[in-house]
Specification:
276 residues; 11 helices; eight-stranded mixed sheet; alpha/beta
């Protein structure tokens, strides 16, 4: 089965790398194109059997599964551009939260799926979010789910949960990387530890925490209870976090991402004929 990728930006590249290196797909079964050929050429240099072509139409015509990995506002003209080459037998996968499967189906005759990956998929871990169009057949649903099982735990979500689920799965690594970097910098500023040591210790703590969660030894509240001994040092640190209402920052973050998302949806909506 031929996989085509239109767009080789950050997330498109991560998907290609992960699917090839996990063994989910062979290099020779991957076709790529990008508006800036230099980015696509870097992938071709690393995976020499990948097919690099110049036009999105070539990818659409030759591929069974077509991944669209471009910016939300570039979707509509691209979909119109490739529409003549997309048949009912093909599957088109969008990887952006702002474009719904219904919008894809309003232009394309193919099976349409939205798959939101995460940078954690590069380590063949974490979740990926799948939303299937109403015309998705059981064989296509099984095929796409199996494909993503090679690099993640695929989780099917409904349209109303798209933004918050994306914030957690796809944006979450950036949010928590920022928190961890702030954690490290504070340790360096307030104590005699150097950044290299603080970073190493933090990374090991995070990996260990992930294993605890993965193996379901403790829930998050119980984990806090186990570490935070009454009257102990951890408790003093927790008091500071509670005093500064650490959780309020996350609440504002979710509100900000949703506001941005709703503005994108409103701008994009007018371009698609949804039969309303």
């Amino acid at each position: 089965m031929q996989l085509g990728f239109i767009g080789t930006g950050n997330m498109g590249t991560i998907l290609i790398e992960s699917l090839i290196e996990s063994g989910a797909v062979r290099m020779q079964d991957v076709m790529i194109t990008n508006r800036s050929e230099r980015k696509a050429k870097r992938l071709k240099d690393r995976y020499p059997d990948v097919h690099l072509v110049h036009r999105a139409e070539e990818v659409a015509q030759a591929s069974d599964i077509i991944f669209i990995c471009v910016k939300p506002f570039d979707y509509h003209p691209l979909l119109q551009q490739i529409q003549p080459y997309v048949t009912e037998q093909k599957c088109v996968i969008s990887i952006t939260s702002s474009i719904s499967v219904e919008q894809l189906e309003s232009i394309l005759p193919s099976t349409c799926v939205r798959a939101i990956p995460s940078i954690t998929n590069r380590a063949f871990s974490g979740a990926s979010l799948l939303t299937f169009g109403k015309h998705t057949s059981p064989p296509w649903k099984w095929t796409i789910t199996l494909l993503f099982q090679n690099i993640s735990r695929p989780i099917e979500i409904d349209e109303p949960l798209t933004r918050v689920a994306s914030d957690i799965v796809s944006c979450g690594p950036a949010f928590f990387s920022y928190c961890l970097q702030s954690f490290i910098q504070a340790a360096v500023k307030e104590t005699s530890i150097d950044e290299k040591m603080a970073t190493e210790l933090t990374e090991e703590m995070l990996v260990g925490l992930g294993e605890l969660i993965k193996k379901k030894h403790y829930t998050l509240p119980i984990l806090q209870e186990k570490v935070c001994v009454k009257g102990g040092i951890t408790g003093e640190g927790m008091k500071v976090l509670e005093t500064y209402q650490f959780h309020k920052g996350f609440e504002k973050m979710f509100r900000a991402t949703d506001t941005k998302y709703q503005k994108e949806l409103a701008t994009i909506k007018g371009k698609y004929d949804m039969g309303e």
